[in-house]
Records
---
Amino acid sequence: PYPDMQELLIAADILITDYSGTPSEIAIMGKQVYIYAPDLAEYQALRGLRKDFFTSPYRINETNEALLELVEQYSPETAAEQARAFMEYTGGVDKGVASKCVVDRLVEVIGKC
């Protein structure tokens, strides 16, 4: 296994995953996610899945053919739109200014000392 998943996500243009929480991590970067779950019925019966797995903006692909069809249609614009929709769907609030907010707060607190 690779020691740092974040490095892989930064390097990747797309993510093909199954039942992991990784889509939340890569959506922040505006990258494309494809869910590949050929064993969906078995997994659902054995472990269960939250309802939101089935209603997220990312389409669930149960066959290689369905996955390949979506990958062939890849576009950066679609990836960014789906990532935005996923962030909205999950309640993500990243606006790209978190560091600025932290620094502003530090200046505010330190300035009162």
---
Amino acid sequence: RRALPIYLGQVIIDEEVIATYAGINAIECFGIVGMASVNMKDGFAQLLKRDNVSKGVHIKINDNKIYIDFHIIVVYGVSIATVTENLIQNVKYRVEKFTGMSVEKINIYVEGVRIVD
């Protein structure tokens, strides 16, 4: 949780809220099938449903700076560099506007590729 100072008190934003917001914005980006949940036991990546996107996003907050890790599944045939650059720009802008905090770093882990009809 992170407290934001305001005139009469504080606003507390839970990391889960930021993770959900970032995840929803990520899956709206072109070329992304969805967020992935990785089973560390066997390395298997599972596509998460829209209501569980936060499980594919890890948030760390330090000195009112946000660090985000995304675990994504991309569409087969797209340029991963283009998709990830778009994801970074889009999510950074939206999360900063949403929280009022700076996004310091975004790491993206491509966990799988899927063919989309």
